[in-house]
Design brief:
By secondary structure, this protein is mainly α. Helix content is 75%, strand content 0%. The chain is built from 13 helices and no strands.
C-alpha cells in the first residue's frame, strides 16, 4: 500500500493539471466575453466587475452574422446526417461480406485513408474542387462525408462484428428483407457507436477552420462561424472581446449537444457489462 501511494498522488496531480488545461481556456473565454475592452486592458484574467453585454450585441449586429450561423448549421447538419446513415450502411456490407476479395480490398482501401495526412491532400483537393465547380457549401459537405468515411468504416466494421448473427437470421426467417433488417434490427443495436460518430464529426465540422478557408473563402456569403471569427484579427490588432463573445456562441450549442448525446455512449458501454 505504501508503494502505491506515490503512484496515486502522481495520478491526482496529472488529473488536476489535465482539468486545469481544459477549464482555464473555458474560464478565459467566458471572462473576456463579458468584459469591456478597457477592463480587459487593465487585467485580462480577473472576472468582470459587471456583465458587459455590448460585445454580444456587436457580434449579433453584424449584417451577415445569422447567415454565417445558417451556413454552419446547414453544413454540419447535412454532413453529419448523411454520415450517420451512409457510413453504417457501408460498414455493415463490408462486415457481413468480409470473406469476399472485393470487400476486403474495399475495406483496406478505405481504412488506408486514415493514414494520409490532410496536408498531403489539401492542394490537389482545392485544385480539383475548383475545376469541377464545387467551391461552395455542397462541395464542402461532400468533402466532409468522404473524409469521415475512412475513420467511420474502421470503427463500425469492428462494432458490427460484435452484433450476433443469430438476431439477423431470426429476422430473416420472419421475412425481413435486407433494408428492413438493417434499419429495424441492426441499426438500433449500434446506436452507441452511431452517437460516438455523430459527436466526433459534429465537433469537427462545426469548429473546422481549414477546409472552409480553402473551399468557401472565395465568397463571403458562404462563410461559416470560424471564418467569421477569424476576421476579428487585423494586421496589427486582435479584438479579443468580440472574438471571445463569438466563441461563446459556437461553444454553447456544442456543449448542450454533447451533454445530450453522451448518455447514449454510456449506455452502450454498460449494456453488455452485466449478464441477466
Amino acid at each position: 500500500m505504501k508503494k502505491a501511494r506515490p503512484v496515486i498522488i502522481v495520478s491526482y496531480i496529472i488529473a488536476i493539471i489535465g482539468v486545469g488545461l481544459i477549464v482555464f481556456p473555458l474560464y478565459l473565454t467566458v471572462v473576456v466575453a463579458f468584459k469591456s475592452p478597457a477592463e480587459s486592458a487593465v487585467n485580462f484574467f480577473t472576472p468582470p466587475a459587471t456583465l458587459y453585454l455590448d460585445n454580444f450585441k456587436k457580434v449579433m449586429g453584424n449584417a451577415h452574422f445569422f447567415q454565417y450561423v445558417q451556413n454552419s448549421l446547414f453544413i454540419t447538419i447535412v454532413s453529419v446526417g448523411v454520415i450517420a446513415v451512409f457510413i453504417p450502411m457501408v460498414a455493415y456490407s463490408i462486415s457481413r461480406n468480409s470473406r469476399s476479395r472485393y470487400y476486403k480490398f474495399l475495406y483496406l482501401y478505405l481504412v488506408s485513408g486514415v493514414f494520409v495526412p490532410f496536408q498531403v491532400l489539401m492542394v490537389p483537393l482545392a485544385h480539383f474542387t475548383s475545376r469541377i465547380g464545387l467551391m461552395n457549401r455542397l462541395g464542402l459537405v461532400i468533402i466532409y462525408i468522404t473524409y469521415a468515411l475512412c475513420q467511420g468504416v474502421f470503427l463500425f466494421v469492428a462494432y458490427f462484428k460484435a452484433v450476433p448473427l443469430e438476431i439477423e437470421e431470426a429476422a430473416e426467417i420472419d421475412g425481413c428483407g435486407v433494408v428492413s433488417l438493417f434499419f429495424r434490427i441492426v441499426y438500433p443495436l449500434v446506436k452507441p457507436m452511431t452517437a460516438t460518430i455523430i459527436i466526433l464529426n459534429t465537433l469537427w465540422i462545426w469548429n473546422d477552420f481549414l477546409l472552409p478557408l480553402i473551399i468557401l473563402n472565395r465568397q463571403a456569403s458562404f462563410w461559416t462561424l470560424p471564418l467569421f471569427q477569424y476576421n476579428f484579427k487585423s494586421q496589427f490588432t486582435f479584438d479579443y472581446n468580440l472574438a471571445f463573445a463569438s466563441f461563446l456562441f459556437s461553444i454553447v450549442p456544442m456543449l448542450v449537444f454533447y451533454a445530450f448525446l453522451q448518455r447514449y455512449i454510456i449506455e452502450g458501454l454498460t449494456a453488455g457489462s452485466v449478464k441477466s
